[in-house]
Amino acid sequence: MRVIGYDAKTGSVTVQVTSPNDLWLLETVVPRGALVTSKTTRMTRSPNGEERGERVNTKLTVRVEKVSFEPFGETLRITGKIVDDPDELGVLGSYHTIVVDSGSVITVTKQAWTKEELNQLGKERLGDAVLIVSVDYHEVAIGRVWDYGVETVASWDTGIPGKGDPKQEEKIEKQLAKMASEIRRFVRGRGLVVFSGPGYFKQKVAQAVKALLASEGVEIRVTAVDAPYAGAAGIKEAVNAMFEKGFLKDARLSAEIRLLDEVLKEAASNNTKVILGLDAVEQAAEQGAVDTLLISTRALRDCHERSIRVVSAVEKYGGKVEIISDRHERGEQLAGMGGAAAFLRYAPQ
């Protein structure tokens, strides 16, 4: 995401979306009641209010009533009533949906922005695709790593017969071709593909698929990590192994996993310097006791005003704020524990 401009007096921020990885953050920071301005297309209306059937390019502002984002999708939909119609199309008061994708420039105006929201808007997101191929002789699953979670994009049973079957190698060759075809859909440039699963089969598959794609002019980087099982269930284990080996160091996901692991570890040991849940965190924040706040995107979406008050209180006393996605396993845990956690400077009264 690229921040083009910020006006503190009006509360307006103009940004350009540079990657689909940016959209989950916009979903979090654009609340109901905010104003969103963007170039869009709209059906014109005649003076009597009837649609003319002609769609024209224009620039509109809507007061947000709904923000729709399908996880791992490539568009964000912002719906609300039109409050500014500079081209006088006769659509004031009508509902309109602004569709945001890579390249879109939008202006968001709301009552207040926290320092962390502005900080996150200006950050670069994960660039080249990182794929996980969780594989053994029986099943395959392919996951795509986003900044905020892992999407399973394909999974299937291999149908490879047992050792000694004369058709085993033929079936393996067909499976290699299928895996290569699926990988080709997502990898651009020299993307990283991590093969995971039990035993040595994953290494064999990694080298064969790399060679197959190279013969088609597609260069990929490959590595392998051990996981106790393969398939869709094995993707989560693969993420853990990738995190431990540092393969996700450029992804926001890696930092979130590290923080949440530390929180869960300290909470399990009954460390009084760690608290869980929005109620407890809010009380501590108001007393200036929070050193680092972890706030779930689910809390920011579902109770935005309250969550922003907590974030603002933490920032007021010089605390650090981390926005945590709820689109991955650890993030789901935080969302399920009240949507917030905090490391404390001292025990609140």
Explain what this protein looks like in three dimensions:
With 349 residues, the chain is α+β, with helices and mostly antiparallel strands. It folds into three domains: 120 residues, SH3 type barrels (Roll); 116 residues, eRF1 domain 2 (Nucleotidyltransferase, domain 5, 2-Layer Sandwich), CATH 3.30.420; 93 residues, 60s Ribosomal Protein L30, Chain: A. Helices cover 32% and strands 33% of the residues. The protein is built from ten helices and 16 strands. The strands form three sheets. It has a seven-stranded antiparallel beta sheet with strand order 1-2-7-3-4-5-6. Strands 10-9-8-11-12 form a five-stranded mixed beta sheet, sandwiched between helices. The chain has a four-stranded mixed beta sheet with strand order 13-16-14-15, sandwiched between helices. A hairpin with a 3-residue loop joins strand 8 and strand 9. Helix 3 packs across helix 4 and helix 7 packs parallel to helix 9. It is flat, with a radius of gyration of 24 Å. The two termini are 40 Å apart. 36% of the residues are buried. The mean pLDDT is 90.
Summarize this structure briefly.
This protein is of the alpha+beta class and 349 residues long.
What is this structure's SSE topology?
Blueprint: E1 2-7, E2 12-16, H1 23-29, E3 35-45, E4 51-69, E5 76-84, E6 95-100, E7 105-109, H2 115-121, E8 130-135, E9 139-146, E10 149-157, H3 168-184, E11 192-197, H4 201-214, E12 221-226, H5 232-245, H6 252-268, E13 274-276, H7 278-286, E14 290-296, H8 297-302, H9 304-316, E15 320-324, H10 329-336, E16 340-344
Parallel strand pairs: 8-11, 11-12, 14-15
Antiparallel strand pairs: 1-2, 2-7, 3-4, 3-7, 4-5, 5-6, 8-9, 9-10, 13-16, 14-16
Helix pairs in contact: 3-4, 7-9
